[in-house]
Automatic annotation (TrEMBL):
Leader sequence residues: 1-24
Organism annotation: Acetobacter fallax
Keyword Signal appears in the UniProt entry: yes
Record keywords, A-Z: Signal
Name of the protein: Lipoprotein
Length: 152
């Protein structure tokens, strides 16, 4: 009986071990075929609840060996920009339009996105000036919020 369980357990381990590469996410446009890109895809996908359903596109190399691209998963309707430098945690920026007004509870979330965009610009994953434009728009929304709260 132990022997049967041992063989069954070994078979299951091999199936699970073989299934792990099957978690390879899909790259919708055929980009990112290098080993560095594949490692980045796995690192980014690991940050989603359902890594097997994550989709990538526009994977390319940025500055200093960073792998950049766009990713969507966990039911998101838009692609987020990502960047990964080997041996470091991935940086992701949710490509969401800044609303006309921010709820006080959301300010930190938007500020954190701002920092991620700055990192992505340094990695060469987004064009130069992207961070400054985003920061200026975010500051304008936050200034408007201050004016609105001071008149109440």
């Amino acid at each position: 009986m132990k022997r049967q369980f041992g063989i069954f357990g070994l078979a299951m381990a091999l199936m699970v071990g073989g299934a792990m590469p099957a978690l390879a996410q899909s790259v919708t446009d055929g980009s990112g075929r290098s080993d560095a890109a594949q490692a980045a895809v796995k690192a980014v996908a690991g940050h989603f609840r359902a890594p097997q359903d994550v989709r990538f596109r526009k994977i390319h190399t940025g500055n200093k060996g960073a792998v950049c691209g766009e990713v969507t998963g966990d039911g998101a309707t838009v692609f987020s920009t990502f960047g990964v430098v080997s041996g470091e945690e991935p940086v992701m920026f949710e490509n969401q339009k800044i609303p006309a007004a921010l709820d006080f509870k959301e300010v930190n979330t938007w500020l954190n996105r701002n920092v991620a965009l700055e990192d992505l610009e340094e990695m060469g994953c987004v064009p130069k000036g992207t961070y400054m434009r985003y920061r200026d728009r975010l500051n304008k929304v936050m200034e408007t919020r201050k004016e609105n709260t001071s008149t109440r």
